[in-house]
Amino acid sequence: MARLYEYQGKQLLRASKVPIPQGEVATTPQEAGKIAAKIGKPVAIKAQIWAGGRGKAGGIKFASNPQEAEKVAGELLGATLKNLTVEKVLVEEKLDIDKEFYVGVIIDASREVRAPIIMFSTEGGVDIESVPSEKIAQVTVDVLRGVRLYDALNLAVALKVPNKNLTAIAQAIMGLFQTFRAYNCRTAEINPLVLTKDGKILAGDCRMAIDDSSVFRHPELGIDVAREAATPPTELDKVAWQIEEGDLRGTCYIAQMSPEIKELNYVGYHGIGGGGAILGVDALNRQGLKIANYADTSGNPTAAKVYRAAKLIINQPGIEGYMLGGFIVANQEQWHHAHGVVKALREEIPKRPGFPCVILLCGNKEKESMEILKEGTADLPGRFEFYGSDKVYETEFLAKRMKALILEYRKDRGIREQ
To answer: Which of the 8 DSSP states describes residue 359?
Structure first.
């Protein structure tokens, strides 16, 4: 899922006629001060990061005037909150809150449901998981019928919302669902949906995530990488996404784990299959090795896709080795992996003589794959070790071999252990 920032979600809500606080996004303290002056009242300065719990982490502050808003924004911009760098802040009017509600829409993918579910609660401002079930009303959406205003009214009535607030809350619920549907969301929530002391209903905060497969429909959102991530995409992440975006045959997932490598013991990691590949990562960690990236090429990808993935992984500055961890006896035809990896190695290894490569490839066409790997690298100046199904469970052995080859590589280059 591709997550949106709060300010992006609120722009979509406003288009669906859900009232939002007056405000704008700023990237500099000066912009924040100008926005606060335009609002003309006390403001909230909210860090825009892909993480919950901003308030407790100090990511939401208040200012009573433009000068104070500029100062507060200066403290937040560039700061690190929940391991994320704050690059933007949302400056919006401070709300005089009387009551907080929650409304959310999720996809229930279970076999029995397979439909959106709208949830409403009179306990907003906290995680919905912590709210008692008797304070939550929900409805399963018939995707052919859609949602009617009286469906939203029934949710509010079920929790005894006062009559004077029913219509406004129901309209906010409707607006959230319309946004969810129009932008192909996997999740969308307003938390809290605020009732102010002067009787207004406003979306105090929101979180949304767009389905990966539908991001191409919404270029106006400016999503660089159509995957959920805890951090904004790096340049490597963006290039990696282009591999997947341009060829849907099989999977090519690559995520950069360490954008800047300044020490030894980093390996470019290329997995096949999620769970088994993680076992390989754990084994490398136990040998004191770290992964510069995590990758997965599975689902019978083309040789061209594997080649582009391997080439990107090997080209990470600072890594000391490449490991293809196919810790799974796959039914996909593995010679596609062999052809793709050989092409990448033939282009890259001559640039870095002695570079260590440990390759485990198991499954359909395994014998042919081993022949392709051995013949294709026979004249290359690298350190290669190839393994098949007999070593598929030997994670510790393979990690030790990776470590041993790296130590030899360092010795050749006159590098001592840090």
So the answer is: E
Phi and psi torsions of 92, nearest 5°: -145, 160
pLDDT in tens, 105-162: 999 989 888 999 999 999 998 888 888 889 999 999 998 888 999 999 999 999 999 9
Q: Which CATH superfamily is domain 22-93 in?
A: ATP-grasp fold, A domain (3.30.1490.20)
How far apart are alpha carbons 390 and 360 in whole angstroms? 10
Q: Span 97-221: which CATH code? A: 3.30.470.20
Dihedral pair phi/psi, residue 248, rounded to 5°: -85, 5
Residue 106 identity: I
Spatial distance between the Cα atoms of 160 and 340, rounded to a whole number of angstroms = 62
CA 120 vs CA 27, 154, 170, 376: distances in Å = 34, 10, 10, 60
| Spatial distance between the Cα atoms of 222 and 75, rounded to a whole number of angstroms | 27
In the block, tokens 């005037």 appear at: 65
| CATH 3.40.50.261 is right for the domain spanning 235-413 | yes
Domain assignments of the chain as residue spans, ordered by start: 22-93, 97-221, 235-413
Supply the DSSP symbol for 130.
G
Please state which of the ranges 41-45, 329-333, 343-347, 395-399 shows the lowest mean pLDDT. 329-333
The residues, ordered by sequence, that sit 6+ positions from 88 with a Cβ below 8 Å of its Cβ are 5, 7, 25, 26, 27, 48, 77
Q: What is the pTM of this model?
A: 0.76
Rounded to whole angstroms, the Cα distance separating 223 from 151 reads 33
148 residue type, one letter? R
